[in-house]
Design goal:
Length: 558
């Protein structure tokens, strides 16, 4: 038990240690101040702008910024859908079938929205061509869009009396060229050195123990795994995701992949502190995120170590569904990392966790994946909660709410409310729609409370752009494919719309000087209140559903 706790503490220590210089680096590159050691990439950056044209030169209003995102997303969706539905006729696709329309739509929406929900097994359903030029490309682009959006919010918070929030094409290009690409190359090299597969071969034939001819699937795995983790995408090359040895062969690759999930989200918190020229603002968010992450890790470890005893089961530790080379400690750390962020990859079967051990990752998603969160999306979700906390605190003390010298008005709170409530409402709607379907029992491998947990987890994952699953839900049905597509689109783009217009409104305001009456957003009192607001909103929204699912499941085990 103590060794597991040491693993977690060591992990978070290294995470913070690396995120500080990376956060400064991201701030510099996203503001166009390219460090000397990366200036060799500037000709490539300028070449991209020439290809895009004059639209990449001027700052944009929220409306133009949004239209650029939607244009890119629509083109990406159409391209990926056509590719998946014709992959059999494309290079290397002779051994795979074309995807059905509903599954192709679901997969395209999933990767364009950074959800990476997979209702298929990658090695048998996709060609290497589809994996490389379809899914991996969208892993980069969707993560870059998230970084661009959060940087537009940073500008809105710091600028004065201007409604221009930056240029989307510049933000996207810089996020890809200076952050996502270099980090992915480094991660891929580490993975390859440890045995993660990286080849253009479709696979090799081999003879099984009983003399039968079998096929060992191979492909460009390391390059996809690197960006799937760094971009908080989560979609695996293989159906077993990062529990499969070809994706995650050693303890070192497990540590690197797990670190990659939270690295850029944690660094963006530091970036925010540097951007607003007040590192204490970043510290506030970092403390709140670490509080939830550490508490969740301890909760899952305790539940997996002693939960079966509490449920009157003879074994003292729950190792079912876990890779023995990772054990409870690294499996628990991955489970909370992938759900605190909008990653969704797995190195253990969450469906086999104890009821309370599975409830904690589910609840992290239900908070809106703001605990570190996805690349960009988690931080702008956390900032929305922070603005709500400022507003509530202002009401309690009878002062006009302000954040970083700017007054928070009704429009700001409406936009923040959309960001906070959209995934919450979509989660409950999705769970209701699945539960009411007449064929729902045929989709489940379990009945009763655990079966409902599978439904609730799936709806939570789809509505929060996570992509992970308990594993007991039959996802590839026309109804779930189309329902999931709607949930993923709305939960991705509605908050982006709100954030862009929030950034524009914040940027148009004057900045007032701080006074003795200004509410501090960096002291312990405010951090405590921020944590309480997050917990209360999550608890009030999902406690009844959790009571019907994992909590009831816990008390029903004999």
């Amino acid at each position: 038990m103590s060794s597991m706790m040491f693993q977690g503490m060591f992990f978070f220590f290294v995470l913070i240690l690396i995120s500080i210089p990376l956060g400064w680096y991201i701030k510099e590159t996203m503001q166009g101040k390219i460090p000397k050691y990366m200036r060799f990439l500037q000709p490539l950056e300028n070449g991209v702008y020439k290809i895009i044209g004059s639209v990449s030169q001027n700052n944009m209003s929220a409306k133009r910024y949004l239209l650029s995102i939607l244009l890119l997303s629509i083109l990406s969706f159409v391209f990926l859908t056509v590719l998946l539905m014709t992959q059999h006729f494309l290079p290397g696709g002779q051994n795979v079938a074309n995807m059905s329309l509903d599954l192709a739509i679901n997969t395209s929406v999933s990767f364009v929205t950074n959800t990476n929900w997979q209702a298929y097994s990658g090695e048998t359903s996709l060609s290497n061509f589809s994996q490389m030029f379809g899914l991996t490309v969208q892993n980069f682009v969707s993560a870059g869009v998230g970084m661009a959006v959060v940087c537009s919010l940073f500008r809105g918070i710091t600028q004065k009396q201007t409604k221009l929030i930056g240029n989307f094409w510049k933000d996207l290009t810089r996020s890809l060229l200076y952050t996502l690409f270099p980090l992915s190359v480094i991660a891929a090299i580490i993975l390859i050195s440890q045995g993660t597969v990286q080849t253009l071969s479709q696979g090799v034939a081999y003879q099984g123990f009983e003399g039968q001819e079998l096929w060992l699937y191979l492909g460009p795995v390391a390059s996809q795994v690197a960006i799937k983790q760094l971009g908080t995408n989560g979609g695996g090359f293989f159906g077993s995701n990062s529990a499969f040895p070809f994706e995650n062969p050693t303890l070192l690759t497990n540590f690197v992949e797990n670190m990659s999930i939270l690295l850029i989200p944690a660094a963006l918190i530091i970036t925010f502190g540097f951007w607003v020229k007040d590192w204490k603002q970043g510290r506030t968010i970092m403390i709140a995120s670490l509080f939830f992450a550490v508490l969740a890790f301890v909760g899952v470890v305790v539940s997996e170590s002693f939960g079966p005893v509490f449920a009157n089961v003879a074994e003292s530790m729950n190792l079912e569904g876990k890779e023995m080379r990772f054990g409870i400690g690294w499996s628990s750390l991955w489970a909370i990392s992938t759900t605190a962020a909008s990653n969704g990859s797995i190195n253990a079967m969450v469906d086999s966790f104890t009821p309370l051990g599975g409830a904690i990752p589910m609840f992290l998603m239900q908070l809106g994946e703001i605990i570190f969160g996805g690349v960009g999306s988690g931080l702008y979700g956390m900032l929305s909660f922070l603005l709500l906390t400022v507003f509530i605190a202002g009401l309690l003390v009878g002062r006009t709410p302000e954040y970083l010298g700017k007054k928070i008005d009704a429009f700001d709170i409406k936009m923040a409310g959309i960001v906070v409530l959209t995934p919450l409402m979509l989660t409950l709607f999705g769970a209701m729609a699945m539960t009411m379907h007449p064929d729902v029992l045929s989709w489940l491998t379990n009945s009763g409370a655990h079966g409902f947990s599978e439904i609730l987890y799936g709806a939570t994952s789809l509505a929060n752009n996570n992509g992970s699953a308990f594993g007991g839900l039959l996802a590839d049905t026309p109804f779930l494919n189309l329902l999931g597509s709607v949930l993923m689109m709305l939960s991705r783009f509605l908050p982006i719309v709100a954030i862009l217009f929030l950034a524009e409104n914040m940027g148009s305001k004057k900045k007032a000087a701080l006074s003795e009456g200004t509410l501090s957003t960096t002291n312990a009192t405010f951090v405590t209140m921020l944590i309480i607001v997050i917990v209360v909103i999550g608890a009030l929204s999902f406690l009844p559903a959790l009571a019907l699912g994992p909590i009831a499941d816990f008390f029903s085990i004999k």
